[in-house]
Write a structure and sequence with these properties.
alpha+beta, five-stranded mixed sheet, 21% strand
């Protein structure tokens, strides 16, 4: 067998090894170079296509809502708050409050803590607590009575609601001091809340005032009807009382007239008896004429 410049072909050496041991130039006329390089490209391309087909084939059977829900559950927070902003109807020398509904979005027990940049202006109850899985609680934030209006009715106060997962048997009074400290290694989620003031003359304030006035008017109307009904019952009771008093007076008069007749008769009979006795005495005491 002959081949190559020396007229002999290397026995027992593959074409790839021959190329590696020979020149580094790409074999002329072959688009991917040597047959070994071509084999590697074909193998990798086929493997990539197989993997891609496998992924597409299995993903097309996964319902889109399930994938979206999985994504939402993965990206959801421990708790959600409604409303997402604290709104206070601002009035001078009056307290006002805003309620926050905090919902636990997990199957774990979640502890929360409320912080604010102006702790002297607000009264928060409860400011710390534990929410059971899928449960909720109400946090009432009270704005203390203010003595002056803020500039342009703008408020720069902010609230921070921190939350973390705790053990099921944990009591709120037994929470460690570093529960909401990031340096303790706990996973802490934070939710920031802004504060806004609603002036009494604002459209929102006026609409709520109108609703309040409407409810007040309905209450006044109901109270008026109740008062009128009570007055009618009072008048009816007074009429019955007068009627009973009149009947009682008539009975007294009848009793008096009956008792007077009996007393006069007794006097008359007594006088007759005295007169009769006197006459009989005269008759029996006069001397006989012989």
């Amino acid at each position: 067998m002959t081949g190559g410049p020396n007229g002999e072909r290397a026995q027992g050496v593959s074409p790839c090894v021959a190329k590696a041991e020979g020149s580094d130039s790409v074999e002329a006329g072959h688009p991917w170079g040597t047959p070994c390089s071509s084999f590697h490209h074909i193998f990798l391309s086929s493997l990539s296509l197989l993997l891609l087909g496998y992924v597409v084939h299995h993903l097309q059977f996964i319902p889109i809502p399930i994938t979206l829900s999985l994504f939402v559950m993965t990206a959801s927070q421990l708790i959600s708050v409604n409303p997402d902003e604290l709104r206070f109807h601002f009035e001078l020398e009056k307290q006002t409050f805003c309620d926050l509904k905090v919902l636990n979005n997990t199957q774990n027990h979640v502890a929360f803590k409320v912080k604010t940049t102006s702790p002297k202006k607000y009264f928060v109850r409860p400011n710390t607590g534990i929410i059971q899985p899928w449960d909720s609680c109400i946090i009432r934030v009270t704005l203390q009575a203010q003595h002056e209006y803020p500039p342009d009715m703008q408020c720069k106060d902010k609230f921070l609601l921190q939350s973390t997962i705790v053990n099921p048997n944990t009591d709120v009074d037994e929470l460690p001091p570093d529960t909401f400290n990031k340096d303790s290694g706990n996973s802490i989620e934070e939710l920031k809340l802004r504060v806004s003031y609603i002036a009494p003359t604002s459209p929102e304030g006026s609409s709520e005032d109108d609703a309040s006035k409407s409810s007040t008017q309905k209450l006044n109307a109901s109270s008026s009807q109740t008062l009128q009904h009570l007055k009618e019952e009072r008048d009816a009771a007074a009429g019955q009382t007068r009627q009973l008093q009149q009947e009682l007076d008539m009975l007294k008069k009848r009793n008096r007239s009956g008792s007077g007749f009996s007393f006069t008769s007794a006097i008359f009979v007594g006088l007759l008896g005295v007169l009769l006795g006197y006459l009989l005495k005269l008759l029996f005491s006069s001397p006989s004429i012989e």
